[in-house]
Design brief:
alpha+beta; 12 strands
Length: 296
């Protein structure tokens, strides 16, 4: 899964969210614990036998949070099973309430569950205490020869997209109130300014007829400049929600993902939202303060 860093987060707080040791998380991302995290930075979250389950087993102090896969064209349950550690097809059917021919292109399908500490992770609020699962048997457990075939096939298959629940139009996972992986292709079309047309998150936007206006500020982020991934800090909107931000002065708009609340700091005084500097640039605004309308 992929986690987008929000204000005040560090290696240890992110580790608590996903039930993973920061000593494992940092090197998994090719970094060290001494290097501080930046707002908007994306971290890959490893899924292992400590924090991921496909057999319904967990510790008593843990909660299950669903992890999703986006179904690719002509992708059957048997193929999804192979890609995701040969999770029994029966589990895929139960978790997603479908039959073997029920996988449809673009569908968000549960392929397993993140195991988070109930008292330490805010993801637990969107989780479940128990899930019905069939344990893998020797008949469907892979042997070295079978695994070699699976790996060979995976190289030809479309990319796997895993999300936590908060990321999935709610999850994923990422499940992630939160956070989770955005393995979609960057937008090919561009605006007249030469930047991404709208943003990477445009296809995930759902207009719920909610809107407000206010003063926007910016924060520095490495995301958005080359991939169209724009982010926003705003109060009272769930993390992971995709919002549409409109700049009345330029009549331009972008779609941005909510990373978290406005940080309680002097720079946020008088602001309704803070958006990444790449998003402000796409709106034709500078890094000062400017009026915006937010829809979600």
């Amino acid at each position: 899964m992929v986690h987008s860093v929000v204000a005040k987060e560090n290696w240890y707080s992110v580790g608590r969210i996903y039930n993973i040791s920061p000593k494992e998380l940092a090197p998994f991302n090719g970094l060290t614990l001494e290097k501080p995290l930046a707002i908007g930075q994306e971290l890959k979250i490893p899924l292992n036998n400590i924090n991921f389950s496909q057999d319904g087993k967990k510790n008593g102090d843990e909660t299950f949070v669903p992890v999703y896969h986006t179904v690719q064209p002509n992708e059957a349950l048997s193929r999804i099973s192979v890609v995701h550690d040969k999770v029994p097809v029966e589990n895929l059917e139960k978790w997603n309430k479908i039959k073997k021919d029920g996988a449809k292109e673009g569908m968000q399908m549960i392929v397993g569950y993140l195991k988070v500490k109930t008292s330490l992770s805010y993801l637990a609020t969107n989780g479940a205490k128990n899930v019905d699962a069939i344990a893998a048997t020797k008949n469907n457990a892979e042997d070295p020869t079978d695994r070699a075939v699976a790996i060979k096939e995976e190289k030809k298959a479309p990319p796997v997209v895993e999300k936590t629940q908060p990321v999935v139009k709610q999850t994923k996972a990422t499940s992630t109130p939160a956070s989770t992986s955005d393995n979609k292709p960057a937008f090919a079309s561009t605006s007249s300014s030469g930047h991404f047309n709208g943003s990477y998150f445009a296809s995930d936007y759902n207009d719920g007829n909610n809107k407000f206006t206010g003063l926007a500020g910016t924060f520095k982020s490495t995301s958005g400049w080359n991939d169209g991934k724009f982010y926003v800090l705003v109060n009272n909107i769930p993390v992971g929600t995709i919002v549409k931000i409109i700049a009345p002065a330029t009549q331009k708009s972008v779609f941005a993902k909510v990373l978290g609340q406005l940080p309680d700091m002097k720079e946020s005084e008088g602001l309704t939202v803070r958006i990444s500097n790449a998003a402000a640039n796409e709106l034709g605004e500078g890094e000062g303060k400017f009026n915006v309308q937010v829809r979600y």
